[in-house]
Design brief:
Number of helices: 12
Distance between the termini: 33 Å
Number of strands: 12
Radius of gyration: 22 Å
Strand content: 15-25%
Structural class: alpha/beta
Shape: elongated
Strand order of the largest sheet: 8-7-6-9-10-11-12
Order of helices and strands: EHEHEHEHEHHEHEHEHEHEHEEH
């Protein structure tokens, strides 16, 4: 453990609690914790291997979880743990049943990075429509004769299918509509009335909606239901010349199937912020395809989002330690009952 501890041992002194935070936690969130004289703070390196991470957990009452997986071994290493709070909204690397067995709530940061992800998805759509990578390369090469070979397109009037109408998908849909795009939403867990009230069309049948969409943007969580959601068969249903954007999680899109669809020309391009393996291996064939735009899992990471997520994480942890959990941010609320 890289211990930046303040105060005495929380295990030996029942009136103090130790919160273990990632070294990536923004200063705004640390300030919330440091304002509490009853809280000791210790740090760990984001992504550090099991033994070192487990040592950091040994005296923790709460943890601000970054990229580290959190399963039965981590729960066992933290005998005093009362809350796990993700610095973000994704939690596919957290074993919720392991937390449930100890009645430990898992909390996320709500809407703290929703705007950042929605803007990133829209940026990728615009980069694809405007052939930004190609146009940039033409200027850098000095060969302007190629600029008319594949002209950019407008997004106004184009059809976009938004997969998921939660905190991020709903914002993405609103941004697309503001640019004049025709928005259709597929989300079997959101009432049709909520989608239509937002001014969008409902697509109850994903397969029926795909052939109509010029753009498909994914905003659903990774789960057993969504892994491989866009496999070869589903990608084959997409409109010829369409674009696919994924700022959600790796594994939702079958990368081999996506590469094949791009190679064949069926899809015109794709934008990926997430991959099956991260960092993406340099031999991943997608990286050499000219029809893609990439980001290194940074859609939800902006200066504003980092500060907001860290503050929300600190408040989530303190709410549990103070006996008043922010229930709306708890993923497994049954443990509170």
């Amino acid at each position: 453990m890289s211990a930046a501890s303040t105060g005495s041992d929380p295990v030996a002194h029942g009136n103090r609690r130790r919160v273990v935070v990632s070294d990536t936690m923004h200063a705004a969130g640390l300030a919330v914790l440091r304002a509490r004289p009853d809280i000791d703070i210790a740090t760990y390196r984001a992504g550090e291997p099991g033994p070192a991470f487990h040592a950091a957990l040994s005296e923790a009452h709460g943890i601000a979880l970054s990229v580290n997986p959190f399963g039965p071994a981590e729960v066992a290493a933290a005998p005093h743990l009362r809350v796990v709070a993700r610095i973000g909204v994704g939690y596919d690397a957290v074993d919720i049943p392991a937390l449930d067995r100890r009645r430990i709530p898992l909390m996320t940061t709500g809407t703290a990075n929703s705007t950042s992800v929605a803007e990133a998805a829209l940026t990728m759509m615009l980069m694809l429509a405007k052939r930004h990578v190609r146009m940039d390369a033409i200027v850098r090469s000095g060969d302007w004769s190629k600029r008319f070979a594949l002209p950019p397109m407008e997004v106004d009037g184009k059809r976009v299918l938004v997969i998921g109408h939660g905190r991020i998908g709903s914002r993405t849909a609103r941004l697309c509509a503001a640019l004049g795009m025709v928005v259709t939403v597929h989300d079997p867990y959101v009432a049709d009335a909520a989608i239509t009230a937002a001014g969008h069309a409902v697509a109850p049948d994903l397969d029926a909606a795909l052939p109509l969409a010029d753009f498909v943007t994914i905003h659903c969580p990774r789960s057993a239901e969504t892994v491989g959601l866009f496999d070869a068969a589903r990608i084959a249903r997409m409109k010829e010349g369409a674009f696919l954007v994924n700022t959600a999680r790796g594994g939702i899109v079958d990368e081999a199937a996506l590469h094949a669809a791009l190679q064949s020309g069926r899809l015109a391009g794709a934008g990926l912020d997430v991959f099956d393996r991260e960092p993406a291996p340099r031999d991943n064939p997608l990286l050499s395809h000219p029809g893609l735009v990439f980001a290194p899992h940074m859609a939800g990471v902006t200066e504003e989002a980092l500060a907001a997520m860290s503050v929300a994480t600190a408040r989530n942890i303190l709410s549990v330690l103070d006996g008043a959990p922010l229930r709306e941010n708890v993923i497994n609320p049954d443990v509170l009952d």
